[in-house]
Specification:
Blueprint lengths: L2 H11 L4 E5 L5 H8 L4 E4 L3 H15 L3 E5 L2 H5 L2 H10 L3 E7 L15 H5 L5 E4 L6 H13 L5 E7 H5 L19 H13 L3 E5 L6 H14 L3 E3 L14 E4 L8 H7 L2 E5 L19 E6 L13 E4 L2 H11 L9 H14 L12 H11 L5 E4 L4 H8 L8 E2 L10 H11 L5 E6 H6 L3 H7 L4 E7 L4 H9 L14 H7 L3 E3 L4 H12 L4 E7 L5 H10 L6
Parallel strand pairs: 1-2, 1-3, 3-4, 4-6, 5-6, 7-8, 7-10, 8-9, 10-11, 11-12, 13-14, 13-15, 15-16, 16-18, 17-18
Length: 548
Amino acid sequence: MKTSELFIKALENENVEYIFGIPGEENLDFLEALRTSNIKLILTRHEQAAGFMAATYGRLTGKVGVCLSTLGPGATNFATAAAYAQLGGMPMLMITGQKPIKKSKQGRFQIVDIVRMMRPMTKYSKQVVNGNNIPSMVREAFKIATTERPGAVHIELPEDIAAEEVEFNIYAVRDFKYPKAEKDTILDAVKMIEKAKRPLLLIGAGANRTRIGNALTNFVNETGIPFFSTQMGKGVIDENHKLCLSTAALSKDDFIHCAIERADLIINVGHDVIEKPPFFMENKPDATKVIHVNFFPSEVDDTYFPQLDIVGDIASNISSLTTAISPQDHWEFDYYKRMVVEIKTHLNKYFGDNRFPILPQRAVRSIRQILDEEDIVTLDNGVYKIWFARNYRCSKPNTLLLDNALATMGAGLPSSMAAKMVNPDKKVVAVCGDGGFMMNSQELETAVRLGLDLTVIILNDNAYGMIKWKQTGMGFDTFGLDLGNPDFVKYAQSYGAFGYRPKSCEEFEQILEKCVNSKGVHLIDLAIDYSLNHAILNELLAKKECLL
């Protein structure tokens, strides 16, 4: 068979369901082999969107999402998606084409060293120079992409190699199991936790696995230790739990930091410094101590330098801690429990505000009330992400998909499409700023073509609102961040989607209720009022007074 056919057989062997992307002439042998495969090609309108979809598929399933591009500009369009997957811990394989490497009549036309470009942004990047190596390369790439920390991998398939004759040879897929930490390490952690007066549990993105969520819920229930999460750790334990302090949406000065600052020990599960810090460690004798629980050791950083590492299978190690820890009479959790109520009071303040354009807090509450606990919201990147992280309570993991690692714009719509494909029975809502939406808005056509039932909410302030907020916070005059937008209702309709423009909070809720319960792609152009961002996030929080 041809190398391209063997490549498809290797992907089938890995149980690949979809390949997202845009083929070029250098991929035609590969495309012909794919034509008769049970793997579905999802044709997108931009390679970046294909990469975002593949990464989100990997994030939600734990399997490797696969995307395809041609050489040169097609491959360079994968760069942001590669970084998105790599920093976000999402398993993804990028397959790119290339001109013939043995003999070419086109000189260096369109040729960029993509393998070298990808190396700093991936865990693995190689060119196929011998088709018989395809089975081992694919198996190695998939193993590397899924082992902790998950991330992006890349294989370049030159046009002439794809057409060469090779022999069939496939490697069996074998599961990889992580070891448990040594008993002495568990005992050291138990001593630290039992000795502490006010231990606190932190849940990060790396804990977002079903087994870990169950183990952590049991840990909290058995020990009574309160918890909070990073932005990407939301929902690992039900945020409606009576011991949930909420999410550290900011690195400091939020109401939750009153509780964090009272802790003398933080048990940090699944977080590492790639995600924006939920708090800053201090290198002082009496500073809060940290136990690092993850699949991999901590790295020393100015913001994070744990006193103890528990490395290995997180679920097993948390279960070992749960069994070994005895709740202590000297533990002081009363302050945390009072802060649970205090934080909710502050966060709920504007939930009933009817002003329009709508406040982000009110928009968050409306979306939360209308969706079921199993439904999924995907966010693009903008200042609204902070309001969702603070105010949107998740009962289940991976029901609020946001990016707090690369924090790129443009991923909201593509990630919602992948989420709907993976979870066809759940309602999926994409929340995008007008700036982020326009970076991949063309994928509305892809969503319509695929027959997806999807709701897209554009929070429209005719500006790059996140940077505008930062600009104000630094005392600068507003400059250079206002923009114009198309008529989003007509824009949606031009793709065959449905468009709406509510004129009140009540009308928005009525429209959203209708959209999420209807077939087809629906877009809501929602005017947003960010006028309180500076007053609350910069001024109020900086002057907050913690409970005594």
